[in-house]
Amino acid sequence: MDLNWDLRWSMNKNTQFRTDSLGQQTITGMTSTGSLERSYMAFPDFLFFGLFNTNVDAVAERYRKLRSEDTTANPSELLTQAFEDGFEAVPWLTRTFGGFLPRMNWGLRWDGLEKLAFLQGFADRISFEHRYASTLTTAYHSDPESGERITESKRVGFNFAPLIGLTFSFNKLWGGDMTVNSRWGKQKNFDLNTSSSNIVEQATDEITLTANFRKSGFDMPLFGLSLKNDIDFSFSFSMTKSSSFVYEINNLEAGGLPREGTTRITIEPRVRYTISQRV
After folding, report:
1. Which residues of 108-136 are buried (b: 16+ CB within 10 A; e: fewer)?
2. SS3 label, residue 177
3. Residue 40 — φ and ψ, nearest 5°?
4. Confidence (pTM)
5. CA dihedral of 54, 35, 149, 89, whole degrees rounded to 10
6. 203-219, pLDDT tens digit by residue?
7. Burial 51-74 (b: 16+ CB within 10 A, else e)
8. Bridge partners of 193?
């Protein structure tokens, strides 16, 4: 099992000068931009993950609460705070460290499942894989007059790659070896742009299945000769569903307006036969 925490930041500062005839310089402008990215913990409304309530409805509820508590604050900054708080599954120590404390992401691979009692005899080797990664990215610039940091955009994303992955290996099946691999992945991103006043959701679900069978050195009589031959069968199937929605900031409760969506299915069988080069 792998556990990881990640924190990255960058800052760019530009200063403009004006030089007079005596060679004296005067600062005429100063701009500062930057970004902060940290590992995050947001989940889909799916199975038991829905218990964490990390969705647009939670953002809308948090936004209403912040506006009622501080009616003089900048609505854009309150929205960015509500965006971060609403998608946060485990807001531990947020008040102490602010937005600088990374959350835990993980990866799990479990080999040797064929030794479990209820799986014995089903396959020679069975392995399970599950990986989760989530990030929160913030882009900002500083006001040239007040120096106040102004948020330009935020992005929350999570990716199960895969949510469930299973690999089965069969030895001496029909005189050959066979491997079957299945994966189910889920990915979703939410983008907040303070200038456009909307939240864009992009989601992708993908299911893949691959199977490979190889048999080597089997005899096939030809013209009275016994030849050693190899044969490979492979089959792959994938189905990818993608969708996109737009949420209006002033009417988050109404739900998202669909933008586009696609479903792509790919089926690819292959056969390779190798005749012995020795007679």
Report:
1. eeeeebbeeeeeeeebeebbebbbbbbbb
2. strand
3. -130, 180
4. 0.82
5. 20
6. 999 999 999 998 876 66
7. ebebbbebbbbbbeebeeeeeeee
8. 153, 198
